[in-house]
Amino acid sequence: MTAAGAGAALAIALASLALLLHGRRIGWWPRPPAVAPGAVRHRHFARLTLRAIVHFGLVAVVLLASLGRLQALVHVPAELLPARALAIAWIGQPAWQSLAWGALAGMVIAAALERRGRGVSPGDLRAVTPSRRAELGWGVLLATTAGVTEELFFRLLLPLLVVSLGGSALLGFAAAAVLFGYAHRYQGWRGVAGTMLAGLLLTLVYLLSGRLWAAMLVHAAIDLNGLVIRPAFARRLRLMARGYS
To answer: So what's the pLDDT on residue 115?
Structure first.
């Protein structure tokens, strides 16, 4: 991968991210209120899903293919191996399973707290959270799509391009985590901080496991908790409060 090719790819990736985040100004991402009619909400979730597929997943795959680096989807690129060696030396190679199980345990605990009415959201998720039972399917699709496409973009493409331009692997992952948090700025400062921390944990899952799909799986599980399990429990609590069993 030449520096010129990596630079052009990084410019395209950042332009795609900018359009994703600021496209509302040109009508690319209209945001309906939480009480919008059902049809409007369904179109909103469809747009969210499509935008993630295009701006994260498709852009990442096309750029990797154009640079001849599609093998990075299966194997950790050589440029990122120094960061993996540091992570393994710091934590230990088998620990990625513990991170994965820890994330899943956290999802269950958060759902249990929501069941007891003590759930605390890390940020403002109203723009992406289903508010009706009929929208829970969209929550599953959004969580799955985000888990796959955002890991492609933030845990693989961006760090690889930064390293290819002369930066270190750690700098690449750190920069990607910052952009990952910024991409969730609609959640407020708590959401940005929480997302940056989640990005760093997902980076560890990727580096310790050496498998991008492991980070995708953990990411999707975390999002399923926030977009499906917790809203479903919250809806159940509202029904119980109204006297329904």
So the answer is: 47
